[in-house]
Amino acid sequence: MSDPNSSTAAVLIPHISIPPITLRRRVADHAMTGVAALTVVVVLVPLFAIFAYLVYKGIGSINVAFLTQTPKPVGEAGGGMANAIVGSIVILAIASLLGVPLGIGAGIFLSEYGRNRYGDIVRFVSDVLNGVPSIVIGIVAYGLVVLPQKHFSALAGGVALAIMMIPTIARTTEQMLLLVPQAIREAAYGLGVSRWRTTLSITLRTATSGVITGVMLAFARVAGETAPLLFTAFGNQYWNWKTDQPTAALSLQIFTYAISPFDEWHRQAWAGALVLIVLIVAAVAAVRIAVKHGTLAGA
Amino acid sequence: MSNQALPRPRFKAPEPDRGSKADLKIEARATPLLQGKVSEIPDAFFGWVMRLCGLAVVALLGLIVYQLVVGSELSWHAFGWKFFGQSDWNPVSDQYGALPFIYGTIVSSLLSLVIAVPLSIGVAVFITEMCPTGLRGTLSFTTELLAAIPSVVYGLWAIFVLVPILRAYVQPFLARTLGWTGLFSGPPYGIGMLAAGVILAIMIIPIISSITREVLTVIPQHQREAVLALGATRWEMIRMGVLRNARAGIVGAIILGLGRALGETMAVTMVIGNRPEIAKSLFAPGYTMASVLANEFTEATGNLYLSALIEIGLALFFVTIVVNALARLMVWSVTRGQPARTIA
Amino acid sequence: MGVGITVEHLNAFYGKNQALFDVNITVLANHATALIGPSGCGKTTFIRCLNRLHETIPEARVEGKVNIGDLSVYNGTSATQLRRRVGMVFQKPNPFPTMSIYDNVAAGLKLNGFSNRQQLDEVVEKSLNHAALWDEVKDSLHKQSGAGLSGGQQQRLCIARALAVQPEVLLMDEPCSALDPISTGKIEELIFQLKEQYTIVIVTHNMQQAARVAEFTGFFLLGKMIEFGKTEKIFTNPSDKRTEDYVTGRFG
Q1: Which CATH class is domain C5-95+168-247?
Q2: Is residue B26 part of a domain?
Q3: Alpha carbon of C80: minimum distance to chain B alpha carbons (Å)
C-alpha cells in the first residue's frame, strides 16, 4: 500500500506556486464594471431626452383648441388634432373587437386543446406572425379590405392592427392559462362541471389579470403604429364618422406634420406625439387599476 | 403466523374525540338539487370554436403569403430574378430594380447592429451580474420603456433633435478622424444612412438587451460558482461562466434585433433621405425596402409599379421570417423551451 | 343517503405502463373505507378512476367495470354527469383563488345553472356547517378570497364545496397530509360525522388515521389490492403476510 504522505506523491503533483491576483486583472475587473455602467448611462440618455423633448416641445401646444379642432389649411396658425384623436380611438376599437376575442380564443386553444402537434404548428405560426413587419401587414390589409371596398377606411386600419394583435394576445393568454395549476381544473371537474364551463369560468377567470395585461401590452404596441395605417386608414384632414371613408389617426397625423416644411405643423406634431404617449400610458394604467380594484382580499 | 422478534400490534381503533361537535346533526337530504341530464354538445361545440381560433392564426399566415405572392406576380413575370440585381428604379419608364432598397436595408440594419450590440450586451450584463439588487427592477423597467415608444415618435425626435446634432457635431468629427475610410465623405446633411443607423440602434437596444438578460438569467448559479471557486475576478467569472455558456442565446438575441431592424419603417423613412441610390459614404441619403413601401405605395399609378412594390414587400416578408426563425432557434437552444417573453 | 360501489376487474394504464392490476372491491354504503399502502402503489390512481378523473391525463386509460349505486361509471354515463354524484377532496387544498368563500362553496351549483339566491344561501350555510367551518367564516363570506384562509380552513372549505352539490359518494385523496395535527383532528372528526349521510372512500398514508375513521380498509401494493376487510382485522389479524409487514412498519 502506498503511503500518500511519501515522496512519490510529491513527485506526481509538482509544487506550483499560484501567484496572487495581479494588478492587471483587478484593474480589468473594475474597468469592465465601469464600461458596463457607462453603457447603461448611454442607453438611458436618449430615453430621457425623448421624454424631455416631448414635454418641453409639446406641452405648450396642447390646449382646448388642439384637442377639439380639426387641422386648419396650410399656412394658417391654430387648428388641432381632434379628428385624429377620435379616429385613432375608432380604429383601435375596431382592432380590439376583432383581435381580442380571436387572440384569446387562440390562446385558450393553445393551452387547453393544443398540447399536441397541431398546437405546435399554431404556436410556431404565431411566433412567425409576430415578426412580420407592420408595413407588410398594411399591404395585406390593403388587399383584403381596401381593394374590394374600393376606398380607404377605418375598418381596413382596424383589420391591419387586429392582425398584429392576434399573435401577441394568443401567446400571452396561453402562458397565463398554463400558469393555472391543474389542481384547480380538477377541482372543478370533481364538482361535475363541464369542460367548457371549467375553461371559461374557472381557468380563464383565475388567469384574468395576466390575460388582461397581455391584451393591454398588445394594445399599447399597436396604438402607436403608423405604417399599417398608411394605406388602410390613409388619414383625413376632416371629421369622418363613416367607417367606409379614409380616417384620420394620431400617428398618421404626427408623421404627415413632422415631414412637412411648416413650423406650425412641426409644433403640432410634438403636441400630437405627447398626447399619443399620454393616452397609451393612461389606457394601460386605467386597466391595471380596474383589475386590481376588482380582486378580492387574499386572492 | 411468523415467528418474528417484533410483537404483533394489538391496537384497537381509538374512539375519536367527539367533544363539542357531538350535537352536529346532519339531516337527511330531501330531493337532490342537481337534476337533469348533462348534454355533451356544448363541450364539443366549444372545443371546435377554440380549434377554429387556432386555425384562424394559421389561415392568417396563409392569407398574407397569398396576398403578397398574387400581388407581385406581374412584377415577377416582367423582371424575374433580375429584379433584385438592378438598381434602376424609374416609375416613369416603368423600370424597376430593387437593389438600392436591399442595399439600404442591409447597410442601415448592420450599422444599427454595430452600434446597438455592444451597448445592449453591456446593459444586460450590468443589470444581471453587476448592479445592486435594489436597482435591478428600476433599471430593467426603464430600458423596457424604450420599447414602448412608437416608431413615429422616434422619427419625430430624430428629425428635430438627432439630425441637427449629427449635422453639427458628429458628422464633421467623423469626417475629420475617419474620413480616410471613405465611409464618412460628402456633405454632412445630417439626414442619411448614418442617422437611420443611429435611430434604428436606439430602437433595437431594448429587444437585444431584454432577451440577452433572459438568457443570462437562465445560466445556473453553479456555473458562476464553479469559476469563482477557481479564483477568478468577477469580470473573468462573467466572461467564462456566463457569457461563454450563453453565446448561442446572445447571438439569437442579436439576430432578433436584426429582424426588428429590417422591418422598421417609420423612423427610418423620416431620416434616411429617401433617395434610391447606392453610395459608399454613410453620410449619403439612402432608401430601404420598408421606406419605399411607405412612401410610394399610395402614389403607385399603374399595375406594374404597384406589383413591383408588393414584390419588395414579399422579399421583406420572406427575409424577416427566415431571420426571426433562425433567431428563435438559437435563443431556444439556451433557454430550452421556456416560452420566450413577448416584447411589447 | 350514500350508495355502495362495486369495482370489478379494474385495470388502469398510463400510456404503456399499467398502474392497476385486476382490482375488485365492494364498498358498502354509508361507511368509510380507507385505502392504505406505500407510495406509488396505485391508491390515488384507483380513486381517480372512480370519478373518471384518471382519463383526463393524456394517454391514460381504464378497463373494467365500476358501478356506483345504480350508475355504471364506464358504460353510458357522461363523465360530467357522474362527477355530480361523486365528490372529491384533493391532497393539497385547492380553493378557487379568485372567488370569495361563498362563491367557492356555491361554485358547483352555480356552474351547473342553479341560480335561486335563497336556496344557494341555504345550501352554502348548511355545507359550511357540515364542514365545521361556518362559525369561523360566516362574517367574511363575500369579502375574503378562498385562498386567504389557513391550510386547514382551506381544506374544510374544499370539503364544504364538495358537499354543496350533494354527492352520494365522497372521495378523499389524503385530505390531511398537507395539514397540521389540529386541523387533521378536526377533519377526522368530520369524516366520522359525514359517514351517516355519505359513502366515503379515503386514501391515506397514515395507518392510525385509517384505524380511527374507517370501518373497512383495503391494502394496495404495486397496483394490486392485496387484502380488503374490516379495519380491525387488517390491523390486528391480517391474512396476507405482505399486509402484516406493512402494518407493522417493516416497509413503506
Answers
A1: alpha beta
A2: no
A3: 7
Record: contact C148-A186, CB cut-off 8 A: no
Q: What are phi and psi of C10, to 5 degrees?
A: -85, 125
Round to whole Å and give the CA distance between C88 and C47: 9
Other CB atoms within 10 A of residue B16 CB: 16
The model's confidence at residue B7, banded by pLDDT at 50, 70 and 90, is very low
DSSP string, A166-209: HHHHHHHHHHHHHHS-HHHHHHHHHTT--HHHIIIIIIIHHTHH
pLDDT of A12-35, one tens digit each?
555 655 666 678 888 888 999 999
- Partners of A296 on chain C (C-beta within 8 Å) are 98-100, 143-145, 148
Question: Based on the structure, what is the number of domains in chain B?
Answer: 1
* Separation CA A285–CA A274 (nearest Å): 16
pTM: 0.81
* Assigned C-alpha cell, C115: 341560480
Whether residue B316 is contained in a domain is answered as yes
Q: What are the distances in angstroms from CA B7 to CA A53, A58, C244? A: 88, 90, 11
- Neighbouring chains of C at 3+ CB pairs under 8 Å are A, B
Residue B13 covered by a domain? no
CA distance C149 to C169: 26
Return d(Cα B164, Cα B157) in angstroms, integer.
Answer: 11
Interface list for C 82-101 with A (CB within 8 A)? 82-85, 87-88, 90, 92, 94-100
Return the residue of B nearest to A18 by Cα.
B231
Gyration radius from chain B CA atoms: 31
User: What number of other Cβ atoms are within 10 A of residue A42's Cβ?
Assistant: 15
First to last CA, chain B: 72
3-class state of residue C18 by DSSP:
strand
Whole-angstrom distance, CA of residue C26 vs CA of residue A215 = 52
* CB of B147 closer than 8 Å to CB of B206: yes
Contacts for B17 with CB less than 8 Å, ≥ 6 apart:
C185, C189
Residue B26 to residue C80, Cβ atoms within 8 A: no
Closest by Cα among C12, C2, C54, C9 to C33: C2
Cell 350508495, residue located: C3
Q: What is the DSSP letter of A131?
A: T
What 3-state class would DSSP assign to C217?
A: strand
Burial class (CB in 10 A: 0-12, 13-18, 19+), B35: exposed
Task: State the Cα–Cα distance between residues A137 and C47, nearest whole angstrom.
Answer: 53
The x, y and z cell numbers of residue B67, run together, are 396576398
**Host H or E run for residue C60:** strand C60-68
Which run of H or of E encompasses C24? Answer: strand C17-27
pLDDT (tens digit, 9 = 90+) per residue, C158-178?
999 988 888 889 999 999 988
Amino acid at A48: F
What ipTM score was computed for the predicted complex, to two decimals? 0.85
Three cell numbers written together for A20:
496572487
Q: Which residue has 404597384 as its cell numbers?
A: B306
**Interior CA angle at B159 toward A74 and A133, to 5°?**
100
pLDDT digits (tens, 9 = 90+) for B232-268: 788 888 888 888 888 888 998 999 999 999 999 999 9
Closest CA to A158 of A57, A233, A259: A233
Cross-strand bridge partners of residue B179: none
Amino acid making up residue C44: T
In a domain, B292, yes or no: yes
Task: Identify the domain containing residue B209 by its residue range.
Answer: 58-335
Q: Looking at residue B106, which CATH number applies to its domain?
A: 1.10.3720.10
Whether A89 and A97 have beta carbons less than 8 Å apart is answered as no
Strands C199-203 and C216-221: unpaired
| Tally of CB atoms within 10 A around B341 | 14
Identify the DSSP state of A116.
S
Phi, psi of B176 (to 5 degrees): -70, -45
